[in-house]
Amino acid sequence: MAKAFFRLQKFLRRTQFLLFFLTAAYLMAGSLLLLQRTRLVIQQGSRGTSANQAPPVPDGMAGVGIVDPRMLQNPRPSPRLPVGSEAAQEPALDQRHGPRWLVSRNSELRQLRRRWFHRFISDQEPVQTAGFKAMQHPAEHKGTYVGCFSDNSRERTLKGAVFYDLRKMTVSHCQEACAERAYTYAGLAYGAECYCGNRLPAAASKPEECNSECKGEKGSVCGGVNRLSVYRVEELRAGARRRRNVIYRGCFRAPENLTDTFPASLIQPNLTVEMCSEFCSKKEFPLAVIRGRECYCGYPTGRFSLHDGADGLLCSGMHNAEGKYCLVYQTPVQDTRCTDRKFLTTKSKVFVALSSFPGAGNTWARHLIEHATGYYTGSYYFDGALYNKGFKGEKDHWRSRRTICVKTHESGKTEIEMFDSAILLIRNPYKSLMAEFNRKYAGHLGYATDRNWKSKEWPDFVNSYASWWASHVLDWLKFGKRLLVIHYEDLKQSLIPKLKEMVEFLNMTVTEDRLLCVENNRDGNFKRSGARQKDFEPFTQEMKDLINRYILTVDEALRGRNFTGLPREYVPR
Predict the structure, then answer these.
(1) Model confidence over 304-362: pLDDT tens digits?
(2) Side by side, which strands form the sheet with 378-379?
(3) What pTM was computed for the model?
(4) Contacts of 571 by beta carbon, 8 Å cutoff, 6+ apart
(5) Where does 29-161 show beta strands of DSSP type E?
(6) Can you tell me the distance from the alpha carbon of 69 to that of 560, in angstroms, rounded to the nearest whole number?
(7) How much is the pLDDT for 276?
(8) Distance (Å, whole) CA 243 – CA 329
(9) Which parts of the chain sit beneath pLDDT 70?
(10) Rounded to 5, what percent of the chain is helix, strand, coil?
(11) What is the greatest pairwise CA distance in the chain?
C-alpha cells in the first residue's frame, strides 16, 4: 500500500512539474507573439516614410532646395523649367526653411508624416459609415423580387453595370445604383456584388441556392455562389432619371457602313434623343448615335473611336443633307467590355511597383491598369475603402506576385530595391498636396472644410510634405532599377497613348476595343466632384517659394536621367 502511494505521489509531482513547464511555455509564447504584433504595427505605421526626409543640401545651395547627390559630385548646368524673372531672382529661403533646418528636422518630419498619413485609416470607418447611413433605404425594398438565377463569371447573366461593396452592400443600394443608370433589373451575388441589366436571366435556380446574406443588411439575401438574387427596379425612379443621365458626346463623321459598325438600329419618324437613348439603354449599349431619323446603338471601336470630333454645325439639317455626320450621346449604360478582372493564374516573374507620392492619382492609375489588363493591382498597404469598392488586390499580400503591379508610396533605398521595375507616377505638387490633405480630412471623395485649411496643420503639412514630394522622385530616380515615368497631367490629356505605354511596360497586350472601353469608363469610383471652387487658393507666397524650388530641382533631376522634364504648367504659380 505504501509503495502504491509513493508511486502516486511521484506521478503527481511529475505532473505538477509538467503543468508548470507548459504554463511557462504558453506565457512565453504569448509574450513573443505580442512583441511580434507590436513590431508589425510599428512597421506599418512607418510605411511610406522610410527615407522620405529631404535629402541633405550643402550650405551654398540654399536657393535651390533639394539637390540630387549625383549633382553634388558632378555639378553641371542643366536646362530647367522656364520661370518668371521674379521667381528666378527670389532671395534664398530664410534660416527657418534653409537646408540646415531641413536636415536637423528629418527625424521629426518622418514622425509627422507617419501620423498624418495613417491617422485617416483609423478615422475612416466612422466617416464613411455616416455617409452610407445618410443614403440608406428602409428595409422594405422598392423593387419586385423576381427570383434566384444562375450566373457565370465568364458569361455574365446581367451584362450591364457592375458595382462592389464588400462590406456594406444592401438590396436597396444595388437597386438604386441600377435605377440611376436606367437598368430594369438588379442582381446581387456573393453578398457584396451588384449587377445590372435589361434582360431577365434565362436559367432559374432553386430559391434556397441564393443563400448569401447581404454584407450591409442582416437578414437580407444577396445571391450566392454563382447565383443572382434578381429584382425588378422601380420603373418610376428609373424613368425619371433617364433624361438627366444622357450625355452629349459631340458631332462626328459617320462611318462608311453604319449597320456593320453598330449592332442595333432603329428607324423612327420624328426621332428624339430620349427615344434613341431609351432604345439603346434597353439594348444595353453605352452609345446612342443619331443621323436624321435613324438611331444606332453600340460601343466606341476602332471604326468609331470618338477621337476626331467635328463642328456641331455639320450635324445640323442644312449642312448634313448627305448624312455624312451624326450626333453621339452617352447613355446611362456602363461599357462592360473591360470590367472583368482576376488575379494572375501564375506568379509574376517581374515584381513591378506603381509608385507615387500620396495624392498623385495612384488609385486612378490602378483603375485604368486593372480595366486595361483585366488583372488586379496590389498594395503595400491595406485601404478598406478601396477594397470595399472592388480593388480586391488590397487584401492580397503585397509580395504574393498574384497582381499585375503593387501600389506604394515608399521611397527608401531598401523599399525601392525590392522591386524589379516601377511605374513612377508624378503629379503637380500643388495638386498632390491639396488632394492628400482632402483625403486626410474627408476621405477619397470628400473635401476638407475651410476650418481645416485655415488651421495650423495646413502650413505644417505643406512644409513637411513638399520636401517628401521631391525626395520621393529623387530616390526612385537614384535607386530604381527600371523606370517608366508617367506624368499625371499627360495621362489625363492623352489617356490611350500613355495607357498603352504602361501596359507594354507591364509586358501585356490588349486590344484597341478594350482600351477604348477603359477610356469610356475613365473616371472610376474615386473621382471627387466639382464641389470645391476652381479659384480656391490655399497656398501663401512663402509656400509657393518653397514648392517652386523643389519643382525646379526635380525637373533638373529628371532631365539629368534623360527623362522628360516636368510639364510647364507646374510653375510659375
Answers:
(1) 999 988 988 888 877 777 788 999 999 988 888 898 889 999 999 999 999 999 999 99
(2) 378-379, 406-408, 352-356, 421-426, 483-487
(3) 0.71
(4) 81, 83, 87, 548, 551, 552
(5) 144-150
(6) 12
(7) 95
(8) 11
(9) 1-21, 26, 29-142, 153-155, 234-244, 525-535, 572-573
(10) 45, 15, 40
(11) 122
